[in-house]
Amino acid sequence: MKYLGFALVFLLMCFAAQAQNKINGQVKDAASGELLVGANLILEGTGRGTITDFEGNFEFNNIRSGAYDLIISFLGFETQRVQVQVPLRTKLMISLEESSLFTEEFVVYATRATDVTPTTFQNIKKEDIAKLNLGQDVPMLLNYTPSVVSFSDAGAGVGYTGLRIRGSDQSRINVTVNGIPMNDAESHGVFWVNMPDFASSVDNMQIQRGVGTSTNGAATFGASINIQTDTRKEEAYGEVDNSFGSFNTRRHTVKAGSGLLNNRWTIDARLSQITSDGYMDRASSNLRSYFLTGGYHGENHVFKLNVFSGAEKTYQAWEGVPEALLETNRTFNLYTYDNQTDNYQQDHYQFIYTGKINRNWKANAALHYTYGRGYYEQFRENDSLEDYNLPNVVIGGATFDGMDIIRRRWLDNDFYGGVFSFNYVSDDAKWDVVLGGGANRYDGDHFGEIIWMQYAADVNIRDRYYDNVAVKDDRNIYLKGTFEATEGLFLYGDLQYRGVDYRFDGINNDLRDISGQVSYNFFNPKFGLTYQTRTGKSWYASYAVANREPVRRDFTDSPIIDRAPQAENLQNIEAGIKANHGKYSYNVNFYFMNYNNQLVLTGQLNDVGAYVRDNVADSYRAGIEIDGAYKITPKFTLGGNLAISRNKIAEFTEFIDDYSTDEFFQEEINYTNTDIAFSPNIVGSAILDYKLFKNFEISLLNKYVGSQYMDNTMNDNRKLDAFWTTDLRLNYALEPRFVKNIDFTLMVYNVFNRLYEPNGYTFSYFLPGEGGAGRVLATENFYYPMAGTNFLAGVKIRF
Questions:
Q1: SS3 for 157?
Q2: pTM score, two decimals?
């Protein structure tokens, strides 16, 4: 309380010190008269800067009398320098001309939805990301967007994190960066831990829920996240961003950029380190990353080279907390071996071209290469030598068929390819057509090593006890377009072909030969319409089809490759209305996602005892999503979202291990009309923003997630309870003379110290009954708890 009191006194002193002299005004587009939101302004010679608000307004306070140069810049417009005499006689009205340099926005145009695209999406600006970015991974920063549930293995948002959208996990959410696919080709997942502090190099994001538009990478089966990295900055800058908080969490980031050199060239760089002890016992993280980009910006062409990398070392917290310990030892971690760690690094290289061919045609192309390598290390107590294809060890007449072992499981992979798009816009702007596609290859080497054994055996330290390679070729081409049939009525069509060739060769970690190959050819059509009224409303409806191949584990865990599960099929209907009326805006949409042959865990075992996924014939997700914001007063804004859904499997068969007799078998239990696992029927957020005074904002962020089942049986004993959490955010910006500005951010998470678990897993089995009579069903639940009340605080200084 003492420190909080000092902070409040300091803020009030700053507020009281505001002088009468000020520079204020408004920035507009010279051609259209449209207000420019987020334009950058620098008062030269004072080290102070600001950006325009939602009405295009700006203001500098506490300005000494005299003459100044005011520099105004905005992406896509020419930078303007205005001479200002203080005190001002009248409010400044500034109009910016469109830039003669070609804009970078077309880099992601082909993979994004626009205002006339009939699908459900949300755009997230750099300013919104910055308010939450204190070093946590991207899933935690998206926690308050519609239908999203975020979680963290370590319990504090640093390390292994994930998210679900409409109940679809990360392996069903397609992610692109600058139009280039980021999902792992084999698991279809995105491991955000390999991209630490990536949000600090992001300019904007678009989340499409449902199938969305055609894009590159693994097929979208629940949503897509399209990310554009930092775009051109007109002026040179430097930035130091440091944050610290609970669980010894630290984030150190340094950024710098050249601005526009010779009116053509730019260079930008970022270097970051994040460390945390984690909320869970020993769930530490040591994360390092960098981002380097250089570009040429011409009147009709842009060339960019992006190089970024992330390296992570995290102590494993994968097993979760057993239900029996959840009340008494909430931070329990099964692992105690000092080096029970995950170690991985990914290096990304992107060469991007975008340009204007003529008045009707634009083009975009990119080459990319990703090199990933790393391992996780495990201590295995009394492990069977047979599992490593090793003979028993005989020492002094004693025979050992098992012993303590330390092993490493490696993944060494290369992912490379190219993407492209051509955009045609007719002279009358009625036709807007994109032809695009890509071809990518993944080459992965999976192998395991024993690095230590309790007793010497006939094995060397780097001998591989399993080794297999996989090569996956993924190609797609799409043609999509919008046609304005009449005033305000837009027709949309999108046709995509996607082909996949996947082959395996070698021995899997369960010592089975998994050699084989599969091929798929998918056709994914999408159609829809949008109607925009003159009052600012937009109605839309669409029908889309997506097909997706099984993931690597579905193939390698199958007894023989020819019996692998079938490809999944999704048919998606989206319909909704969007409106923006100045003080308030809202989106209301309905969705129906009908699955054929969706892959789910059933408890069924393969021939070596590994659990496999199987197809269920019919399942669906249906719901309504509402999100919006209302400016109650100039200081108060209320925003939020609510998703209400039903997520059902028509028929489902569970397989339960039976150990109640001498002969092991699996019992089958049939279910009908059960909830899909990890699919809460209600997800909602409410955010209240209050501007106490200029540059000081207080936000109260609330999140509610309804109960969700950890498997598909709809059994109340295998369920995650509903939870409601509240976070508090304080943002304050100073504009001293010696730097452009200083931003202070304080996030207090879980203010009311709720105990909740957004993720977990479960399994059940039969055991002999008491006295050997009959049998009893035992269920084991494991949870990933989130931290109670904790905080992160940050200071960002811009030069």
A1: coil
A2: 0.88
